[in-house]
Design goal:
There is one protein chain. The protein has about 200 residues and is α/β, with parallel strands linked by helices. It has 2 domains: about 1-30; about 35-200, Winged helix-like DNA-binding domain superfamily/Winged helix DNA-binding domain (Arc Repressor Mutant, subunit A, Orthogonal Bundle). Helices cover about 50% and strands about 15% of the residues. GO terms for molecular function: methylated-DNA-[protein]-cysteine S-methyltransferase activity.
């Protein structure tokens, strides 16, 4: 009886050890999975930071000018992720942007994996539907998403677009057609609009 007791006790301890090992292994896998890849793209005297998860592109912004915006975004949505410099993983995204800048492609056809509120995502989806070489206004975007009185909220969502250029917020103008409201600066916004105008002329 005593031997059976010890055997049962040992079996219980072994089972607990194995369960604990699997739990730790699972947590380790989760930690390893929470990685964001990044790289930089230098184009026309501007340096862009590109960040992607294993599911797709989640951030494009100017390296220096958008640094505070990226830190805010990372703190809100990617606290448990670690950044890993990985040019190989980012090559497809960099090439997509280069093709756009060079006028070879009219859209950034890569997987996206951005984070935001439901309202923001609704606005960003509307931005993606603006044709290449065309422009619209904040008021028109508000009407498009059936929120005609939410122009200010729409403008705020556009200002928080995490994927500059890829989600073409540069195609949104003021009510009177003025070029305004671009996080990366008015000069770059004009340059992007000029690229598209030249290719559609």
């Amino acid at each position: 009886m005593l031997i059976k007791y010890y055997i049962a006790h040992i079996q219980k301890d072994v089972k607990l050890m194995i369960t604990s090992m699997y739990d730790r292994l699972g947590e380790g896998i989760k930690v390893l999975a929470k990685v964001l890849f990044y790289d930089y793209l230098v184009k026309d005297n501007e340096t862009y930071m590109l960040v992607a998860s294993t599911e797709g592109l989640c951030y494009v912004g100017l390296k220096n000018q958008d640094e505070l915006f990226w830190e805010k975004l990372k703190k809100k949505y990617y606290t448990n992720y670690r950044l890993q410099y990985q040019p190989k993983e980012m090559a497809i995204y960099k090439q997509a942007l280069v093709s756009y800048f060079d006028g070879e492609k009219r859209s950034i056809n890569v997987p996206f994996s951005y984070q935001g509120t439901d309202f923001q995502k609704q606005v960003w989806q509307a931005l993606k539907e603006i044709p290449y070489g065309s422009t619209t206004t904040y008021q028109e975007i508000a009407k498009q998403i059936n929120r005609p009185t939410a122009v200010r909220a729409v403008a705020n969502a556009i200002g928080n677009n995490p994927l500059l250029i890829a989600i073409p917020c540069h195609r949104v103008l003021g009510k009177n057609g003025s070029i305004t409201g671009f996080r990366a600066g008015i000069i770059l916004k004009k340059q992007l609009l000029q690229i598209e105008e030249d290719k559609t002329a």
